[in-house]
Write a structure and sequence with these properties.
Helices cover 39% and strands 16% of the residues. It has four helices and five strands; from the N terminus they run E-E-E-H-E-H-E-H-H. The chain has a three-stranded antiparallel beta sheet, with helices on one face. The protein has a two-stranded antiparallel ribbon with strand order 1-2. Helix 2 crosses helix 3. The longest helix has 21 residues. The termini are far apart.
Length: 144
């Protein structure tokens, strides 16, 4: 049975609540005196190292995409302090984690194959360069 705190990524992929840790911290920014009293910012930690929700390849891409937000232990930390309310920051952090995981699930594009220009294309390019050169040559002043 799925827990309401589980994070649904796609129809088939759900991150269990046991693999997520939330910590509430004080946030800077707007909020007036409230900001000094209430811990409204959220630090969402995805325990990716022992996660079974996504494949190892997707995990590697996730860590590469996460950059500084990934830890050596294999966790991904997302901080959200955009909003004044704790609940909205929690939703924001969860949405951002879903976007990151979705991006990691997308397989990378195949590598680009190097190609050479055709002989005809090279000849056309050189012909165009020579024509341009002649136009410029005709504009020069004439020596007496």
């Amino acid at each position: 049975m799925a827990d309401e705190r589980d994070l649904k990524v796609t129809e088939r992929i759900t991150i269990p609540a046991a693999e997520l840790e939330e910590q509430f911290i004080r946030a800077g920014g707007p909020g007036g005196q409230n900001v000094n009293k209430v811990s409204s910012a959220v630090q969402l930690r995805y325990l990716g190292a022992e996660s079974t929700a996504i494949s190892p390849d997707a995990k590697r891409r996730l860590y590469r995409l996460a950059g500084q937000r990934a830890t050596k232990e294999g966790d991904v930390i997302i901080e959200a302090s955009r909003y004044r309310s704790q609940e909205r920051n929690r939703e924001d952090a969860r949405e951002r984690l879903v976007e990151l995981v979705l991006e990691a699930l997308r397989p990378p594009p195949p590598p680009r194959k190097k190609t050479k220009p055709s002989r005809g294309a090279v000849e056309r390019r050189i012909k165009a360069k020579k024509a341009r050169s002649n136009v410029k040559k005709m504009r020069r002043s004439v020596d007496d």
